[in-house]
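pasting Regulator of SigK for the record, 289 residues
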Amino acid sequence: MSTREEDHYGNWAGAYALHALTPDERERYEEYLRRSEDARAEAAELGDTAALLAVDTAEPSAALRANLLDAIAVTPQLGADDAEPAPAGPAQTHAREDRVADDDAVDREELARVTALASAPEVAAPSAAGAVITPAAGSKAARRWSRPMALVAAAAAVVVIGAGIAGGTGLLTPPSEQQQAFAALEGADDLQRVETTATDGTEVTVLWSEDLASAAVESDGMPELDDDLVYQLWMIRDGGAIPAGLMDADEGFAVMDGELHDGDVIGITVEPAGGSESPTTDPILVQAT
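structre below
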């Protein structure tokens, strides 16, 4: 099996599990599965998870399937058992150092830009939600928005302080428990981050840390739901789905309730307001950790 095959088919597991492939694509992917033991294991795990969360399987629309596969084709994803990267050669090392230097410069420029907002006559506090960059935005923008949450938190603190001074209040709004938990997760030494796509085409980032036994979901494009519906998060293990909290589309992120176990699969469904004890709709996203 070639590296080119892995690059082409390696991110089709989610679409395969959610029946979002055409018959021809499904046939080609299953031929790939026969040649890759790792791919078979991942497809089986996500297939079992989708079955646990699924109710009546609905045939995806052509537009939904196209959005899903287009996003998968250009969005880098990490497998559950990624190998350690091969040692870099001199050229790769210099290129990586240049990218790090570029990232540091972007961070300094961005922090200075946000800090400058504090001196404006009117200052709006920034959203705590993390952003997921669309593929067309480019790798530099993706790196900028995937910087550690600590930078965003620091810039937000400067803006809020400036707003308080400008308004004569001198007040600082403390971060919420969710924001603190998300910042702690972003700062974890063993942080894993996977950019993936929900069945409606929305780009979603799943983050987790085994050291912290914590996971979160982040997206700035989740569609608004009717008042009687909510996004519900699930940790799937041992043949069952465990409720792990709700996600507000306006917030843009949610740290999951409960402790993450090794091998858990993350799922999202749309449920009645208040959430459910077990899934009542098909999953819009499943992601192995």
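Residues 113-163 have pLDDT under 50 and may be disordered.
Residues 7 and 229 are 37 Å apart (CA to CA).
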